[in-house]
Every structure is written in structure tokens, then in C-alpha cells.
Amino acid sequence: MSDPTPVPRVIATESAARLIAELQAEHGPLLFHQSGGCCDGSSPMCFAQGDFLVGDQDVLLGEIAGAPFYIGRPQFAVWRHTQLIIDVVPGRGGMFSLENGRAVRFHTRSRLFNDAESAQLAAAEPQSGAQDPGWTVLPTRS
Asked: Which residues does the annotated region (Disordered) include (predicted)?
């Protein structure tokens, strides 16, 4: 009996997937980064691949619509128990995010993983940044 595939740590709504496809058509391959910096932490930033340098403090959560999605390690430590749901809402995107100027922006929603999902995910921690191809096991919340 094979283990079920773990629930994805990040997913996109249909409206987010449509906007990602539009941006990919204009800019080529994309990547996303969710930071916990001083700016609105609910707005992931969308970049053309190569326009944002992924570092060893960034964690690869997965892909949405073919675009890798990274989060800062300190932010992952706080949000590790949630699935990120990338959506599109009215408003202005981040100054450097590719959706800026479209009257919509990407927005991060979340939901808590249930116990079964958490158990699956405990065995497969996400990959850390570009410099470290191995898996990074972060301490669990107490």
C-alpha cells in the first residue's frame, strides 16, 4: 500500500490561475515569494524568474499554475500548520509585483491543516532556497 500524496502547502484559486497564465504569457516563467517583512504580509509578490534571487532563507512550498512559490523561513515557521490559498482580490499589487497596474492583486488566504494532513506533511518538509537542494527540517511548534 503506497502512502497518499501529501496535501499541497500552497494552492491557487481559478481566478489566480487565470491571472498567472496572463502574466506568464507576457513575462515568461514566473515565481512567487511570500515574505513576513514590513509590508502587507497577505500579498505574495510575483516576479519573472531571474528577477528575484531566492536565498537559503527561502523555503519552496510548491508550485501554483507552474510557478514555484517560496516563503521566507521565519514566515514558514509561523505558517507551517496552514495551507496557503493564493487568490485575486480588487486593489493594487505590490510595487514590484507583476500584477501591479491591473486593478487586482494576489492575496494569501489560509486554512489549518487537519491532523491527518499534518501527519503526512511532517515526513516531507519543503525544500529550502536555491543554494540548498536538500530538505530542511524545521522544529515543530510547541
From this structure: 122-142
Over the stretch 73-121, which tens digit does the pLDDT of each residue have?
A: 988 988 899 999 999 999 887 778 999 889 999 999 999 999 999 988 8
Pair 32, 43: CB distance under 8 Å: no
Question: Which of 110, 121, 114, 113 shows the shortest CA–CA distance to 85?
Answer: 110
pLDDT confidence of residue 124: 72
For each of the domains in the chain, give its residue range(s) and CATH number, in order of start: 10-128 (2.60.300.12)
What is the distance between the alpha carbons of residues 59 and 90, in angstroms, rounded to a whole number?
28
Per residue, what are the HEC states of 9-70?
A: CEEECHHHHHHHHHHHHHHCCEEEEECCCCCCCCCCEEEECCCCCCCCCEEEEEEECCEEEE
Distance CA 46, CA 24 (A): 10
